[in-house]
């Protein structure tokens, strides 16, 4: 059957089911044949019937199309989460301004991933150290994952130092919630206070001068860190890499706030007080116990 024949057959089936056509057939049988006027009347009725049916389909189709487009536009209106990574080389610092006005400063040898969505703002400090000045947004809390720690804020300024041995949180303005992702025992840390996460244990609060800036101003605050931690921090500043000290020497606790324009000279002075000497090779700086 050709396409035209198939179409004609479909139209014929619809016409046979038409009550007006059935009535015409009955009258034709009674009269013998239809008059020309009757044929024209039946054809006009048939056209009205078909036109009404098509209009109904268009209305139904239009409703369906409207809903489909509305769903599509609703999906477009919801922005998908976008993640961007930023990193620095040793000796390099970088300032990041996000789409909401939050400012993030990366220390050297640091890497961070930022994910922003309609309902949340999230940062993952992968390595190194970052200072955050978060624009307040009660509808989108700002969270930072660093190692096994999680920090949650609405709007504040704070610093996170991710080291191999610990995570150090220092709050400069406002307050944040600080927690271990495994322990789920959050504490609130306010401006001028510092907390540390070692494993799953959060340290007691330590006060500090929130009016003093450290690493981004060329200073290092060694309170609560070991010599091994200090070497990790100094290596972010670039220059000849400092080798990790021997285990016993590396556990020496360092205390104080020092200017670190020249890390080699700084270590030599520190060695006088902590019992180690500094030796340089072609590629590294080595710390040795006296």
TrEMBL record:
A Pfam family per the record: FecR
GO function term, MF aspect, one: sigma factor antagonist activity
InterPro entries tied to this protein: FecR, Ferrdict_sens_TM
Transmembrane segments: 49-68
Signal peptide (from-to): none
Keywords noted in UniProt: Membrane, Transmembrane, Transmembrane helix
Domain FecR protein: start-end pairs: 85-177
PANTHER family hit by this protein: PERIPLASMIC SIGNAL SENSOR AND SIGMA FACTOR ACTIVATOR FECR-RELATED, PROTEIN FECR
Protein name: Iron dicitrate transport regulator FecR
Organism from which the protein derives: Pelagerythrobacter marensis
């Amino acid at each position: 059957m050709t396409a035209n024949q198939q179409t004609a057959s479909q139209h014929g089936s619809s016409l046979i089911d038409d009550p007006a056509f059935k009535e015409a057939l009955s009258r034709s049988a009674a009269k013998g044949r239809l008059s020309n006027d009757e044929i024209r009347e039946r054809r006009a009725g048939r056209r009205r019937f078909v036109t009404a049916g098509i209009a109904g389909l268009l209305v139904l189709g239009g409703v369906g199309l409207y809903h489909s487009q509305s769903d599509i536009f609703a999906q477009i209106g919801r922005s998908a989460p976008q993640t961007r990574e930023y990193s620095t080389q040793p000796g390099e610092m970088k300032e990041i301004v996000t789409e909401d006005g939050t400012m993030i400063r990366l220390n050297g040898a640091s890497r961070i991933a930022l994910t922003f969505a309609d309902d949340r703002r999230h940062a993952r400090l992968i390595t190194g150290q970052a200072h955050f000045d978060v624009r307040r947004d009660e509808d989108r809390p700002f969270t930072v994952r660093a190692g096994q720690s999680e920090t949650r804020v609405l709007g504040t300024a704070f610093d996170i130092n991710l080291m191999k041995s610990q995570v150090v949180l220092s709050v400069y303005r406002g307050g944040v919630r600080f927690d271990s992702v495994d322990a789920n025992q959050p504490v609130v840390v306010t401006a001028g206070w510092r907390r540390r996460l070692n494993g799953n244990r959060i340290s007691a609060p330590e006060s500090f001068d929130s009016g003093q800036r450290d690493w981004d101003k060329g200073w290092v605050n060694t309170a609560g860190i070991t010599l091994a931690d200090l070497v990790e921090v100094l290596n972010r500043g670039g220059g000849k890499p400092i080798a990790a000290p021997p285990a016993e020497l590396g556990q020496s606790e360092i205390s104080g706030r020092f200017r670190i324009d020249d890390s080699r000279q700084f270590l030599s002075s520190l060695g006088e007080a902590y019992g180690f000497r500094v030796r340089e090779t072609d590629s590294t700086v080595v710390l040795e116990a006296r």
